[in-house]
Structures are given as structure tokens and as C-alpha cells.
Specification:
Two copies of one chain form a homodimer.
Chain A (H helix, E strand, L loop, with lengths): L1 E5 L3 H12 L4 E7 L14 E4 L12 E4 L6 H9 L5 E2 L8 H14 L3 E3 L8 H12 L3 E7 L2 E2 L1 H8 L4 E10 L1 H8 L8 H4 E9 L5 H9 L9 E6 L2 H7 L5 E11 L5 E11 L2 H21 L4 E3 L14 H7 L2
Parallel strand pairs in A: 1-2, 1-4, 2-3, 4-5, 5-6, 6-14, 10-11
Antiparallel strand pairs in A: 7-12, 8-9, 9-10, 12-13
């Protein structure tokens, strides 16, 4: 399978790393909006091209992995490129998925292409686990916890505060909440009871630390509904101790089974990831394999992880997966 | 969807309970090898019939759920009934899955039916998680732990010992092993290091307890490779404290991501089930929905959980699951 990456940030680089681990996948091109001469990639012999040239390579790419932001990039890019390529993205604005799906579906179907949106881990693997668990346990409650991990959006919000030079925010599930859910107690949890937020902040010299701390803790939507801790550290400490982009989380379905709902059944799925973008990229590459196959079978239009039979993700044959993984 | 159950033991009764939770599913018949007059079921208005009459009801059943044992029942029954019905079973002899699959596939295809074998949790949900995780993290190690839960096979083995009146065996994952895997240490674990076995035994009056304990602990294949604890208890204690059939377990994929495999990614899926057969039955009913739909779409032959797109398990529409679960 011949892949191309559009957008070479953390996610695009993650796709490049994932391709290296999949022997049946070849990276053909990296497309960028920047001057290609300024973009240095990891793989020898792979050309970096400006996105303006992308249509010249149409026939040499099985699936285009679009690595853009969900706020403004993907809503435009995925429908646009679905006209010319089989495409896959990691669109993660949950509320706008129906609209994005409809736009991509229309473009892909009209041009005989296959697309998959919202691959990754949430949406993605977490969604899959919510769906499977809801189908198996119709009577139950869902719980999703995120972290411990870096929230890019919250880190950006901190950095926009006057007097803040740099900063990083970790989202952390509350251990007591996890414990209660895991024990089948079906607790009703407020926002505050589910997660805490921990901030590591590098302040500008002479900045008013008390004011910064207060601005963070009272910031609407981002922090005001959470118990938030703020640590002021040096730039060196931030670089040394907080350079990574770890993330993860937990999806639970806590259900009742039995004639009188007398028995509990708890399904738990969790991820612990040193690198959020590299894991997301690994999911994208596995689903790119499925999209390539489906297109070759004549299936077109937009799909999500819900529509893909798991066998399509594997480089192994049906006989092999039945013999070794079932 | 109209279902019928063939075989009314713990699993068949579990299917009956699961049907009650699924509003789009109707239980039409329970078929038994026993005298139907002696089989009392939970659902009002559902007929119990002898299996000899089953073909008379062929046109009134969308999917037949075959609740038999994997050792001798299912290898015969599933291919036989796949000639006349869409069928689903929970065949769990991992080593014989390829052979069972081929037999069921032949019978189902020749007669335009759709079948699914080996649904449940292992094989079943655990297999799915092994497959997904292997596709996402090609570089990594798999770990499966079972328990804490009752092993029917090991409990039966205890009960066959001379001087044993009754008994129950629990399989328990070793906490240190779970901890090491969860921490990404990728340990190499022997059989003994993964699980311990705990037995609760009711001895016949005057039996030689020391001999029974020794026979259990040294029993080849079942106990000799494990650290086993034996507790002698009264019949009343067994009934009071060990009447349930709980089970569960953990599936891990501990992988490496990044250009130089410098980052860890750990995927963990776990189940904690008060009732093993009721949960297995809940999985069977969800997959029966998929089989019914696939058959109506003209897809025939034998499938496994690997071949079923998750959306087929849900009573909700594609729009609904994208809006609420993705």
C-alpha cells in the first residue's frame, strides 16, 4: 500500500514512524504547506512536495493521510481531497462529526473514493469500545476518563495569559472516581469529581504569579469547573521534565445482566501512551489499510471506525488471524 | 429479530436474560434434548420444544443460538443446523477453530445461511482486542490473563478425585505479573508466574484430606504447573459462598512506537463479570443481530467476530451512533 502524508507536524511525523513498523506499507510522499526545502523528514528517499503539486501524484497514492487541525483545516481539507484520493483523517470535534461525515461522504462517493474520518483514540478506539460495550450491555452506564496526559488546548490557553512564557497542562483522572466506577458503584460524577488539572508554568521575569495563578484557576470552560494546581517552574525544568506529549485514558461500561439485573458486568478499556500523536498515527495507518482494501473491493463513500470489520486492519489473512488471534 | 435457543443450560438461560434487555429481539422458541415438559424457562409465552421438532419452525426463526459444549456438541451441531438456520455459537476450543470454521462455512454457504462461531469473551471480545491491538502496535507483546473466576474444567477435575463430594476452582492472575505488564516492563512470564489456582473442596466424610490435596496439587496439565491452594469447606459453605460463576480477565498489548521505538504504548482491556454465562450470552445476542442483518443483505457463509463491522451489532442507526458514540 502506497501512502502519502499531508501536513508534517507531530501527527504527520507519527505517521512516518508508524509506516516504518508496517512492512506492507510504503511512504511515497510528504506534502506540506511550507517551503519543502525547509521540511526535513526522517525517511530516506521520500520526497517532500508542496501541497500545490499534490494532484500531479494522484495515481501514485493509494491513501492520503490528512494530518491537519480539526478546528479549521480538516473541515475544508478532507472533503476537498476526497475528490482526488482515498483519504483518512483524525477529525476530533465530536459535536461536528455528523456535518463533517456528510461533506466527506458526498465528495468521496461522487468520485469513487473511500474515506474514513475521526480515526485515532478518542474519537477512535475509545468510540469503538463505547459501541461494543453498549451493544453487549444495553443496561448500563458509560464512563470516559482522560489522562494522565497533556491537553494541547489547555496548554495553549495557559500560554495565552499575559506574563506566561510557556506552559503545559496535564489532565488527570481522580483516582477515587476510577475506583468507584471499577467497583461497579455506578456513581454520578460531576466534572470536578472526574478529573483534576495540573499546570506547569514558566512566567516572564517580574510577572505577577498570584495573578497568573488566579487567571488560570478561574478561566471559564477550561479550568473553573476543575480542581487545578499551578506550579511555577523554570524554562529549563519545563524542557527537561515536560517535553513529551503523553496521554491516555479509560473507557468503562458498567452494566447489569441476569433476569433481574442481579449480576454486574464491567468492561474497561484503557490506554497509556508515551506519545499521543504517535499512537494516533498508528491507528491512522491501520485504518488506511482497511480503506485501501475497501476501495479495491468497490466500496466508496465515508466510513468511520464503526463501519470497518476488524479483519480489514490486519496484514494477515483470515486463516492466519483465526488460527492465531481468535 | 426472532431468535431461538438450542440447549437450555446456563448459557441458554443467559441468552434468555439477554433477550429481555434488547427491545428489538424476540425469543420465539427454546429447543431442548430433554423432555420439554421437564424444562421450565423464565419467559412467559415462549414454547419449549424437543429438538427433534426443530425443522418445523425453520421459517419462524431469524437466528438460532446454539448453546452446547465445545468438546462434542458444537462440532456436530453448528454445521448441522447451519444447513437450516442462520446460526451462532460460542465454540471455544481455540486449537480446533480452523476446522470448525471450515465445516460451518461449507454448510452455511451451500444453503444460503449466515453463521458466526466462537462469539463470547475468549474467544470473542478478548480476540477482538488482540487483533485491534496487534494491528495498531505491530511492535509489541501480547499478554492475556484470566480471572479471578471459576474454571469449569478445573472444578470438574477436582470433583473427579476419589473422596471429593463437590468443589470449585478459581483461576487468579498474579498481581505482580499484572503490575509488571501494566508498567510496560515486557516481562517473560512462566505459567506459574501468570496465574495461581485456588480450590474450595467438600470432602466425603472420613476421606483422606492430605491425599486429596496432594492429588489436586500434582494433577498434570490442570494444577502441577501452578501454585495451588486447597481449602476444605463444608457443603453449606460451598453453597453459600461459591454458588456464582464469576469470571473475567485482562488482555494487554505492550508496544513500542516512535522512530527508534523510544516510546511505550500500552493497551489494556479487562472484564469483571459476576456471571460468565450471562455475559457470554449477551455477546451472542449482539452478534445474532449482525448475522441476521448480513443474511438479509445476502452475505452468507461462516464469520467470526473479526469479520463483523461493529455498527452491525447496534440497534441504532449509523447517524445515531456517529452522533452519540463516536
Amino acid at each position: 500500500m502506497k501512502l502519502a502524508i499531508l501536513g508534517y507536524g507531530n501527527l504527520g511525523k507519527g505517521v512516518e514512524c508508524a509506516v516504518k513498523q508496517n512492512k506492507d506499507v510504503e511512504l511515497k510522499y510528504v506534502f506540506t504547506r511550507r517551503d519543502p526545502a525547509t521540511v526535513k523528514i526522517l525517511t530516506d528517499g521520500v520526497a517532500v512536495k508542496n501541497v500545490s503539486e499534490i494532484l500531479n501524484y494522484k495515481d501514485d497514492i493509494d491513501v492520503l493521510i490528512i494530518c491537519g487541525g480539526s478546528a479549521t483545516d480538516l473541515p475544508k481539507m478532507t472533503p476537498e481531497y476526497a475528490q482526488y484520493f482515498n483519504v483518512i483523517d483524525s477529525f476530533d470535534t465530536h459535536a461536528r462529526i455528523p456535518e463533517h461525515f456528510a461533506n466527506v461522504d458526498k465528495a468521496a462517493k461522487a468520485n469513487g473514493h473511500t474515506a474514513l474520518i475521526s480515526a485515532g483514540w478518542d474519537p477512535g478506539m475509545f468510540s469503538l469500545n463505547r459501541l461494543y460495550a453498549n451493544c453487549i450491555l444495553p443496561d448500563g452506564n458509560d464512563y470516559t476518563f482522560w489522562g494522565k496526559g497533556v491537553s494541547q488546548g489547555h496548554s495553549d490557553a495557559i500560554r495565552r495569559i499575559d506574563g506566561v512564557k510557556d506552559g503545559k497542562q496535564y489532565t488527570i483522572p481522580v483516582p477515587e472516581a476510577l475506583k468507584a466506577v471499577r467497583a461497579g458503584e455506578n456513581p454520578t460524577l460531576t466534572t470536578r469529581q472526574k478529573h483534576t488539572r495540573e499546570c506547569f508554568v514558566v512566567a516572564e521575569e517580574g510577572a505577577d504569579l498570584a495573578r497568573i495563578e488566579k487567571e488560570i484557576k478561574t478561566m471559564p470552560n477550561y479550568f473553573d469547573e476543575y480542581d487545578t494546581t499551578v506550579h511555577f517552574i523554570t524554562e529549563e525544568e519545563l524542557k527537561r521534565d515536560h517535553a513529551g506529549i503523553p496521554h491516555g485514558g479509560f473507557v468503562f461500561r458498567s452494566g447489569s445482566i441476569g433476569w433481574n439485573k442481579e449480576n454486574k458486568a464491567i468492561i474497561e478499556y484503557s490506554l497509556k501512551l508515551d506519545s499521543n500523536p504517535e499512537f494516533t498515527a498508528s491507528v491512522l495507518v491501520a485504518y488506511a489499510r482497511a480503506i485501501d482494501r475497501l476501495n479495491k473491493e468497490g466500496v466508496t463513500g465515508c466510513k468511520t471506525v464503526f463501519d470497518i470489520a476488524p479483519a480489514y486492519l490486519s496484514p494477515l489473512s483470515g486463516d492466519e488471524i483465526r488460527a492465531h488471534l481468535l
